[in-house]
Specification:
The chain has helices at residues 13-63, 91-106, and strands at residues 113-117, 123-130, 148-155. 21% of the residues are buried. The longest helix has 51 residues, at 13-63. By secondary structure, the protein is an alpha+beta fold. The protein is rod-shaped and about 110 Å long. A 3-stranded antiparallel sheet has the order 1-2-3, with helices on one face. It has one domain (13-155). Helix 1 (13-63) packs antiparallel against helix 2.
């Protein structure tokens, strides 16, 4: 009697192709997760920088408190140049120096911009804006709807 032993040995081509597709989908998912993680990490970095920049100018205003109201109207898109490190400055000159230093810091953010205004007589609103890649959020008076905004309010 002749017996034929037809046992499968190894893996068929179809099984190999299905395993390859499953692994490919998993790797694409991991790659997408990595891209999203990098984007969110970058966004968090810019937000942290904006917080630091906003509080830095707030501390500068507090240190020159006699000139509180005169900080109204500062916009980092305006050119400022005053160096109070090399030579002594008056409190009024210190405003321009603070604005120049603040403008240099805001430039580190993508499409960075800083604005100080006085919505009420005894308050200053400090806004640090940057391009976060998504439609903007957080500005009370939307200067540029594409920019994300961090706001600090100082009271006199």
């Amino acid at each position: 009697m002749l017996s034929v032993n037809n046992r499968q040995k190894g893996v068929s081509l179809i099984e190999s192709m299905i395993a390859l597709v499953v692994i490919s989908v998993g790797l694409l998912g991991i790659a997408a997760l990595q891209v999203t993680s990098m984007k969110q990490s970058n966004s968090a970095l810019h937000h942290s920088q904006a917080v630091w920049i906003g509080f830095n100018i707030a501390e500068r205003i507090r240190s020159n408190f006699g000139q509180f109201a005169n900080y109204d109207g500062i916009d980092t898109n305006t050119g400022y140049s005053q160096d109070c490190i090399a030579a002594a400055c008056s409190p009024a000159d210190l405003i321009t120096s603070d604005a120049a230093d603040w403008a240099d810091e805001v430039k580190n953010l993508p499409s960075g911009r800083g604005v100080i205004d006085a919505p009420f007589g005894n308050q200053l609103r400090i806004q640090v804006m940057w391009d976060d890649g998504d439609p903007g959020a957080g500005c009370e008076n939307i200067i540029d709807a594409k920019l994300t905004c961090y706001t600090v309010i100082l009271e006199q």
